[in-house]
Amino acid sequence: MAILFDSRTKTFFLDGKGVTYAFMINKFGYAEHLYYGKTIGHDDLSHTRTRGAGSRDATIPGNDEGGLNVYHYFPTELSFFGTGDYREPAVEVLNGSGDRLTELLYDSHEIVDEKPKINGMPSMRDGETLILHLKDRVTSFACDLYYTVYDDASVIARRAVYINASDETKKLNRAYSFSFSLPDQHYDVISLYGAWGKERTTERIPMHHGVVSIDSKRCASSAVLNPFMALADRDATEEHGDVYGFNLIYSSSYALKTEGINDGRTLVTGGINDFDFCWVLGAGERFETPEVLIAYSSEGIGGMSRALHDALRNHLINPRYAKKPRPIVINNWEGTYFNFTVDKLKSIAKAVEGTGIDTFVLDDGWFGKRDSDRSGLGDWFVNTDKLEGGLTEIIRYVNSLGMKFGLWFEPEMISEDSDIFRAHPEYAVGVPNRPRCYSRHQYMMDITRKEVRDYIVEVMNKVLHENNIEYVKWDYNRNITEFFSFAREPERQAEYAHRYALGLYELFDRIVEANPEIFFEGCSGGGARFDPAILYYFPQIWTSDNSDAEDRTVIQYGTSLAYPLSAMSCHVSEVPNHQTGRMSPLKTRADIAHLGATGYELDTSGFTDAMRAETKKQVEEYREMEELILNGDLYRTADPNSSNFFAFTVVSKDKSSAVLTAYRRLGSTNNEVRYLKVRGLDENKAYYIPELNRTLKGSTVMNLGLVANFGRGDYMTVKYTFKAVDNG
Ligand code: DGJ
């Protein structure tokens, strides 16, 4: 049993893979956090309860005798506002009288084998779950805390449900998913910041007294700050030290905060962003918050990443595709942009016939009046003037080459110059009598409205059902402005950002889940909505519009902190690179793109026989290592943020095979020697390394390493494969 309640000490022990999470119900009825970290015994942990520094602290009503037991700073499992807990509250409720007080005390608990789903939102599958029922001392406001642990991933999944059990209407001014205490403050905060073309760049800063906060106010998880944060022991490295990772399963405006408390401890909290948020909670209603994954590793940042990768692959990403070989696409976007004919598309597809590329994806520009990004969005019917013979002809042709056909959509958007906007201007998000902001010359559909969702579902499903479409790329190219719905009353307008998420997940349910045989890929003007909630529906997401191999080493390195390689869609594109103008060898572009769900995106119609043969060889190599990309353990072996090198080693779970891809940014007349110590292998096994044509002991390549020979030039890669041999 993974979850145990010791009634003697009133302590809950939740044991996941290599981890224990423990808290107790103290004598006042508070759920008091005790521990999360490496597996420990089910002992009486009360010897660790102590009081740190305080300042004019309040006492618990009716318990004014002083000392630890009246101290309001003990780390409750959920921080709340108004009764002396001055840490960042996880919840603030506006009661009917106008007071904003909550005091959540233990009521009862359940331990269930079947993890309850969140209503209308994606969440982790499986896992034994504890439901802790907390209740306000006075107001009939209640909260259920959910905790789930897994025997195959070192994470705990947490969320809160807020319940108005009173007969008055209440308002939630803040409704975070969790709060979590750490016994120390010796941590650095690691986050993933970015922008278009530089998504999920790693940043590490020391935490301090007060709050370090990351958030999104964009109604999307965004390229600017991913909904991921790690707290790493200040001495922690890639391979050593305690690291906690927090990953929110949510796609709309969020907040994640780390607070250094004056008592020497740390609080982490977060969930739906409470900026521009107020939820009206009617009598008897429940409010479900998104789930957060909290990973722990004593094996450094790398161990924390592997814990998150296991959790996402084993229990979140659509199991139909999570661990299965992926389509290898040729996408026409960078090859043609909007400027294509049927003949051009056919020649792009024909050129890769027999290379192993198995899916042709027709990107933006096939529908409505869409010859640029200024028109057509929302008119999801084929433009037969541009695409002669319609989808039928191009699909027939692609299928005749033995390839599958994929199609691009941007369902959440609407162009002013479109038939649907002319017929229904109110479908676009906007505020009465106020001009709308453009972004990429387009508006957003108000998917918080049912009739808008119904329209999108109807027109999209029609295209999907009438044609042999086996792959869909779901794009999302702007962030919202004018957060407002024409269909909602004034006091509910600050529910907008969360209602957008709920509308989005309903669309996914009705389109993605309703077409299980279609492979869906997420996209957002590059990788601007790359979060676990999207991965629940789409097994992979376009990582960035920046397909330059050099920039991709930094982007893929950062992304891998929280997300498995199989989640990152990575394409080989042409040179000079369209985003950076940089030249890099085709082998390098392929080697870097092969560290994810790979594909190709260039005008192949001019391919020579040699280029076709090279592509075929690359695809074969990729298929050989794909099992590792899908299911292997990642060991980041060199960091491009702080060195001239980038290297990833991916090792099979049984340590019988591995691949190491290393990259050197700039060459020199006098290159430095670069030892690559391979991580994650079995020291006692012997491995055949075909690139060196020799067999070496795991201990040799792990401790002495290999010396990479990159040759002459900039942006060069080397790759080594490792196969365990019997005589190890
Ligand atoms: C942004 C995406 O990231 C690109 O791959 C491409 O699909 C364009 N949108 C099309 O408009």
What's the arrangement of secondary structure elements?
Layout (H helix, E strand, L loop, with lengths): L2 E4 L4 E6 L2 E7 L5 E8 L52 E4 L9 E9 L15 E9 L4 E10 L2 E12 L5 E13 L4 E7 L7 E6 L3 E6 L9 E9 L9 E6 L5 E7 L5 E7 L6 E3 L4 E3 L3 E6 L2 H16 L13 E3 L1 H4 L5 H10 L7 E4 L27 H11 L3 E6 L3 E2 L4 H5 L19 E2 L5 H17 L4 E4 L21 H16 L7 E4 L9 H6 L2 E3 L6 H14 L5 E6 L12 H8 L3 E5 L7 H23 L1 E6 L6 E7 L5 E8 L10 E2 L9 E4 L4 E4 H6 L2 E2 L8 E10 L3
Parallel strand pairs: 21-22, 21-30, 22-23, 23-26, 26-27, 27-28, 28-29, 29-30
Antiparallel strand pairs: 1-2, 2-3, 3-4, 5-10, 6-7, 7-8, 8-9, 9-19, 9-20, 10-17, 10-18, 11-12, 11-14, 13-16, 14-15, 15-20, 16-17, 24-25, 31-32, 32-33, 33-38, 34-37, 35-36, 35-38
Helix pairs in contact: 6-7
The structure holds (2R,3S,4R,5S)-2-(hydroxymethyl)piperidine-3,4,5-triol.
What descriptive keywords fit this protein?
Immunoglobulin-like, 38 strands, alpha+beta, Beta-galactosidase, Chain A, domain 5, binds (2R,3S,4R,5S)-2-(hydroxymethyl)piperidine-3,4,5-triol, 3 domains, 728 residues, TIM Barrel
How would you portray this structure in words?
This protein is of the alpha+beta class and 728 residues long. It has three domains: 2-315, alpha-galactosidase from lactobacil brevis (Beta-galactosidase, Chain A, domain 5, Distorted Sandwich), CATH 2.70.98; 329-631, Aldolase class I (TIM Barrel), CATH 3.20.20; 637-725, Golgi alpha-mannosidase II (Immunoglobulin-like). Helix content is 19%, strand content 31%. Strands 6, 7, 8, 9, 11, 12, 14, 15, 19 and 20 form a ten-stranded antiparallel β-sheet that branches. The radius of gyration is 27 Å and the shape is globular. The mean pLDDT is 95. (2R,3S,4R,5S)-2-(hydroxymethyl)piperidine-3,4,5-triol (DGJ) is lined by residues 333, 363-364, 408, 475, 477, 523, 525-526, 542, 545.
